[in-house]
């Protein structure tokens, strides 16, 4: 068979770009790892309390300065631990004033979970062994439901919470 000169050129270019593409994908996935920037800090999932942010008394909402908040949470099958209130009841609702800057910090004790505040731009993957962080300004007033968007087992749909932004 006699290939036309241009056919040869295009076949070569086509194969070369395919190989290059696969090399880039392989490099990104296996060598660099797939963890986004926010997953840079690691943690022992068996002992999350060793990290100051995830000690029971530091869970939930803390105002660090005027209009700036941190929310520390521990995800596990099948709940988000936002800490306990003064009466010892499990906190399920975070309340911040409109316009607050909120840094969400979350880690998992067991499997991969999600942490999405529906209707906002807060949407993280929560991996055991890593701390996921996301800082945002809560611009809109309303009640926003926290959902787990990574299938984590039989109680996946039971993982919830509420972020309330008030005027
Ligand atoms: Cu946790 Cu799905």
Structural summary, described in words:
The chain has about 170 residues and is α+β, with helices and mostly antiparallel strands. Helices cover about 15% and strands about 35% of the residues. The chain has one helix spanning about 5-30; strands at about 60-65, 70-75, 80, 95, 100-110, 115, 125, 130-140, 140-145, 160-165. The radius of gyration is 22 Å and the shape is elongated. About 25% of the residues are buried. The mean pLDDT is about 90. Bound molecules: dinuclear copper ion (CUA). The site of dinuclear copper ion has 8 residues, from β6. It comes from Sporosarcina siberiensis.
Supply the key terms:
single chain; 167 residues; alpha+beta; Immunoglobulin-like; 2 domains; 5-stranded mixed sheet; 1 helix; binds dinuclear copper ion; transmembrane helix; CcO_II-like_C; Cupredoxin; transmembrane; Ba3_CcO_II_C
Topology:
Blueprint: H1 5-31, E1 60-65, E2 68-76, E3 79-81, E4 93-97, E5 100-108, E6 113-117, E7 123-126, E8 132-138, E9 142-147, E10 160-166
Parallel strand pairs: 2-5, 4-10
Antiparallel strand pairs: 1-2, 2-3, 5-8, 6-7, 6-9, 9-10
The structure holds dinuclear copper ion.
Describe the sheet with the most strands: 5 strands, mixed
Could you say which small molecules are bound to this protein? Answer: dinuclear copper ion
Q: In the CATH scheme, what's the topology name of the largest domain?
A: Immunoglobulin-like
Portion of residues in beta strands equals 35-45%
Distance between the termini: 76 Å
Low-confidence stretches: none
Q: Which geometry do the CA atoms define?
A: elongated
Q: What's the helical proportion of residues? A: 10-25%
- CATH architecture assignment of the largest domain: Sandwich
Taken together, the total number of domains comes to: 2
Alpha plus pi helix count: 1
Number of strands: 10
